[in-house]
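RECORD TYPE: protein structure
NAME: Bifunctional NAD(P)H-hydrate repair enzyme
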Amino acid sequence: MSDSFLSALPPLPLPRELRTWDAAAARLGIPEVLLMENAGKAAFDVLRSHMPECCGQDVWLFMGSGNNGGDAACLARWLLDAGAHPLVLHACPLTDCKGTAAKHARMAKAAGVAFAPIKRHMFKNPPAVLVDGLLGTGLTGSVRPELQAIIARINAITAQRACFVLALDIPSGLNAATGQPSPIAVRASATVSFAAAKPGLVLPEAGQWTGRLSVRPVGIPARIHAAFPCGARLLDENCLLSKLPQNAHKNSFGHLLVIGGAQGHCGAAHLAARAGLRAGAGLVTAVAPAANISEIKNAWPEIMTLALGAIGDWPANIPAELRALTRRCTALVVGPGMGRTRDTARFLEAFLTTLGDARPSTVFDADALTVLADNPTLLRYMTKTDILTPHPGEAAVLLGCDTKTVQTDRWAALKKLCALCDGVVLLKGAGTLVGQRDKPVLISPYDVPQLATAGSGDVLAGCLGALLAEPGEQPDERSSLCVAGRGVILHALAGLQCAKVLPLRGNTAGDIADALPLARLARQKPDEVPPLWK
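PREDICTED:
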């Protein structure tokens, strides 16, 4: 991966990418048996950090026949040597274990670890600590019925007796890509993920199964990560830029143009312009039909305006003053509160065809996306520097499906959206996904209830516009994919700032916009931001 910005984000490998890493490590002379030994020790350290008393207690370890089961056997040996009383309960005959997992099972038995088949164990009087090593990240399709029954029994035990459950690498039954059960998954108290987190583990919906997530290295060299980059990266607060240029003036931070605000929807354009200012744009101009300008400005003298025509409709032709202003601006936001009327569609089509290559990087949001869905030929005007920001409903309209289909497989929906045009696509929602054709997917791990309020998307659009307008210090910081990722995190952190004051919601979209400057402090003062994991 050539972009240093993207390379600095934590990797989120899929199972096939992990296998590539393991094979590359083996070619360097690092055997899989050593990587599994390191995983067992890492799991032991994480378990002891959560349950220090486990070293003197009984511990049940549920073992499958794959490498996840080998991790469990290895951990059992570490527990035994620390004074615990581990019992490895294997779901399959030990003769079914192959390769490295079989080696670690033999070593654990030789060291004195007790083993017993699960089917002969009646689950009576379970200990306070359980370890899940049944299934790993390589699971495809549904969990086999016999393992579903075991997982259901584990979940029932923990619900009744409040046992502590540590999942090794991933809770058994959880899909490593989507974070969804297949169709059932172990509900862990904590999960230790080896080498790197997996995409499904960081999605908010996975939290009810993963518990507290820890990521531990197992000895795969950094050069392998660099040589075999994975297809997903984690967005966190470290992707924000905190350094400001010296001797700056307003033009140092760009000029954002917001086009939107039809009659009855002027608040959306105001919020986008307001967020643009709060996110750091040096100048913001709102463009709308003349009758709506004062409502968009809404007593904010800092928002400059350009009135189009003398009535409330969008003009069919692009005025010369708008063409000139667009060429002077460094970024655009098109769509908030723009309306979905026929004159809106005519105006947007005229705008895209008239400006052509002279148009700066643009965020297409809200009503503009509906117009694009109704006129898909306009998607050819989207460039690689543009950002499209559909929520699930708008994504469904663009793809010609229903919202449930989008939400059932957001990864697949994002891939299809990226195939529609050259631009960056930001699929909004809890665990926002950011993608672009032939680029890694960026995943936001945040689920912030304070963001689920009317106008929040308009604030995000203005925030993205401000970041697009702002000159970057490095070339890859100007990549619209990176800008989109930074905007998503800045918006999420602003929601967390609101949560400090209104933890049970009640904030407005204007509050989110006004919290954006405080959210930028996250990069300078990380102690104020909740950690994703320890």
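COMMENT: The two ends are 27 Å apart (CA to CA).
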